[in-house]
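so my prof wants the structure for this chain in the tokens format not the other one, which i didnt know existed until like an hour ago. anyway here's the sequence
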Amino acid sequence: MQTNLASWASGTDLGNEADAILRRCVHCGFCTATCPTYQVLGDELDSPRGRIYLIKQVLEGKEPTQSTQQHLDRCLTCRNCETTCPSGVEYGHLVDIGRKIVDERVERSWGDRTRRTLLRKAMLSPMFAPAMRLGQSLRGLLPQALRRKVPERRDAGPLPQVGQHARQVLMLAGCVQPAMMPTIDAATIRVLDAVGIGARIAPGAGCCGAVSFHLDAQDEAVAQMRANVDAWWPLVQDGKVEAIVMNASGCGAMVKEYAHHLRHDAAYAQKAADIVALVKDVAEIVAPHAGLLRARLPAGMRAAFHPPCTLQHWQGLRPLSEQLLADLGFELQPFADKHLCCGSAGAYSVLNPDIALELRDRKLGAIAAASPDVILSANIGCIGHLQSGTDTPVRHWVEVVDEQLRRAAQD
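here's what i got, hopefully its the right format
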């Protein structure tokens, strides 16, 4: 694709990056076949190809409008199009650039600004945890729209002493998972303990930055990235940990991009690159020990595995994760359109509920045809979103493995 960037964009870091990405696009349209919003809305401007042209026009000097902003907002950032693209177009990075530029030039309505700001601040607030506990205690009285965002609270259970293990890893507490689903972190610690790995959370590490980054606060997100690097760096530098383990694929996908987002920061570029080299999804850590765990697990369970977009399209870990689950004894049931987004996409399901719910129901309909006993996933957002539309249990796979191990130990 030929480009002719406007003078304000030409020669800048963002302009140069966007120009290189745009020039790889050959306008083939393969991406439209796997774009969730295009499948739902049928509008070319709500497809990757259409959004690429909108971004190109802005970079070439056309003034963006609220319509431009809306089409970019509707993107789930699932990156399914990147998996499909034969030309290697880094659409995810391009839409990040496009959103940043458009948001600087198009003022949102007061209601939209307020909603996004409140959502971002609420999720990152220290009051989120007590508010979530209150919501869970009153869950049966909440309106349906709110109830589906409040998961039932489950006991996290006791944690083992892990300091005696020679192998040590760090975990990211994140912003909402400890309050919404504390069982995921507890299960991760126990499963890693079962294979001889100690896991702990570094003081000072917090939100990965994804919430702020996708809610018009990219500078705030970069500050959160630096804070996490600062929290991890002393332990990484001293060689006290072998990996930084992620049990939410959305966080893992974002942290694996720290080197990209901090590449122009002289004080953090190399540190971020070293950090990224250590980031592993929990499946990557557990996979070599599947045989050890399988010997302690009961007979197989019929399960459907929903691979989050951040796992399969951002990180390319769907094959490894599915093989791990099979090796652990799960009887994985195939279902249609496994590559498509479920509609969660972080805060997307709050900001674009109609699209999100249609995608959720499509996904659950495909899964229901497989009649699984449990739906497994690897990201808190997907788990909560899917659970809101089905009576079939939706769990992080590490939770189910942990429960089976604990049950086997009691027998």
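also thought this was worth mentioning. The chain has 24 helices and eight strands.
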